[in-house]
Known about the structure:
The complex is a heterodimer of chains A (137) and B (301). By secondary structure, chain A is α+β, with helices and mostly antiparallel strands.
Amino acid sequence: MSESFQCQVITPDAAVLDVAAQFAAFTAHDGEIGILHNRAPLLCKLGIGHCRIECQDRTYQFFIDGGLAQMLENHLTILTERAISADAINIQAVQDQLQKIQTRPAKTVAEVQQRQDDTKKLTTQLRLAQDVGNKAN
Amino acid sequence: MAKARAIVKRRKAVQNIKKITRTMQLISTAKYQKCFKRATAGKPYVKKITEVVRQLSSQVAEIKHPLLEANTATGKTAMLVLTSNRGLCGGFNAGILRTVLEHLRAIPADVQVDLDVAGKKGINYFKYLRRPVRKTYTHFDDRVRFEQIEPLANEFIERYTRKEIDAVHVAYMRFESAARQRPTVMPLLPLKQDIASLAAPGTTQPNVGSPQRTHEVQYDFSPPPAELLADLLPATVRILLFQCFKENTLSEQVARMVAMKAATDAAADTIKILTRTYNRARQSQITMELLDIMGGAEALK
């Protein structure tokens, strides 16, 4: 487990994380992908989901909202428009939002699609926050 | 003593104004530094996205995407004008609005321009001109976040792909350096064919460790490069718009800093002149009183 690679999480607002990681797993557009030291070059689209980065001393968990992951020469870059640290997710706020969205009327196909997307985003956040919370307790 | 007292009153007023403008200058300096930090914090994202787009476009022979194709038949264009919510920033808003008007005049009369205006100053200006505006925004402050820009960009992208508009332009104050900002009208959509150079207006040359070697890299693509690229183009539009907003707020703070510095200096000059006038008035009054006394004494003899 000593071999590590550099891992960065970047959003338009800031570089959220830059650490030496031993393992990283994230939700790609078609399923989860795990990355270890010396993985072959990869360029893949991300889905709505989570991202787990395991380092020597701690594990970082993020909610990610689409984007792109690049692995090149032991350098993993996760490029996403929104990355929320699992500790920073407010369960109550997410639940309220979720309720609001589920009661929102959607008449057109686009609106229904939008509602499904929003719901998925929020439920993923909720699950992630609850996971972290359970571990902490 | 009437005149001298009036001068003292005025001097006090000017001193108060100077204090206020000086504080405003300090505030905008602090805000500028914060904005600047935020702008540099966003650089890695832009750099990376440019790098990936370039690598992908070298993999794809011909790129076809609705955001790259020119719409020509709608007879409608959209324009987003970024101004500030607050005044006292010198020629900042005037500069942008003048450029917008020039741009509008250059557009043929049969093309309808949908104006979206951000910032109270711009909104009031178009109200004064009695020019209808499609949408107005006043909620962008000096801490613009990406999630605030996202819906805006998505709306433009959607309207463009539905072929409702021919083009989207953004008018903003481009931040070239701390000493130089320039009002600019930037075409946002359609994206330029040369997409590799896209995401980097004003940023440094894209810097990949060794360009030759990256071309040789055989990536695992998922999904295929063409699809990945198609996915990245809207993201590029969003980040471009986000950068416009960031540069605009940065320029606003610089403009306010300069304007307030000028106001403080002018107040200092006025104080100096007023003090001099006051001293002179006081002296002439003393002289006159002395003459009066001496005249009285002479008369008593």
